Amino acid sequence: xxxxxxxxxxxxxxxxxxxxAAPASGATPRVPEPVTLSGGWxxxxxxxxxxxxxxxxxxxxxxxxxxxxxxxxxxPKPTESxxxxxxxxxxxxxxxxxxxxxxxxxxxxxQIRRKAEVxxxxxxxxxxxxxxxxxxxxxxxxxxxxxxxVLRVDNRKAKEPREGWWxxxxxxxxxxxxxxxxxxxxxxxxxxxxxxxxxxxxxTVLVDADLTNxxxxxxxxxxxxVRLQAPDDGARTTHTERARPLAPGERARLxxxxxxxxxxxxxxxxxxxxxxxxxxxxxxxQVAQVERRRIGLRTVEVxxxxxxLNGRPVELRGxxxxxxxxxxxxxx
Length: 332
Prior knowledge:
Structural class: mainly beta
Largest sheet: 6 strands, antiparallel
Oligomer: single chain
Number of strands: 26
Helix content: under 10%
Strand content: 35-45%
Low-confidence stretches: 1-29
Number of helices: 1
Distance between the termini: 18 Å
Radius of gyration: 22 Å
């Protein structure tokens, strides 16, 4: 990978949409709020990888569990002995949140490095093998009372792919219980776009979502509403797009552009202005999902061998990715 390409990738990652923010202006639909699972966790090292044979997935076995707070790394110091990785287990006993008609729950993991297997009350939910992407697993309709969540996390690596100076592992980012209704948008994306013609430019945001009808019995026609709030109570943008009808279990992609209203407030390093963005998914008259983001209007491109931000050349003097901060990641 060339120097310019690496720099472009780092800059794009650094400008990625930030985590949950305040909702955009307008009425916020009544959807159960996510429940962050940060406290009450326990960790148990398993360097011999015998946890499955000794019953750890049940949540009732094992000695030597110690309390931790998630996010958590089980090898926080970069030493030669830990570089090739190990296996660790996490356990959490939590109370089910109140149930709401029309919704059930998924467990959303923002990042686990490298491989994860997940059990809920001794029942396997699934696994995930990408050390960077978030993922969700169905928790279903949680009965009132206490439940036990168990994870096996494996960050062992081979010589390839070649990576940096620290092979860190664990539950690297937050874990949440998230409510899901009859229709779900799988990690909807929202990205700024600028188009220019005849000396005039306009800004839009591209919305890209894979919609799934989770109902078992009825066909629904989903709608996606996007609300943008400019910084400092500036102009507001609202746009609704309807998808085609989806049969039970059917999945379809919906892509559309939303024109940004008012004078654009552009993001740049000296003035990092961000819009509040809200994406609401409806199944008929019921709001089934609400996602909140923050987004900056900016363009990043390579032209004539130069990295350009908002059309102007940029010279980078060191670049990193968001989670790489001292004590929490591979800080440069």
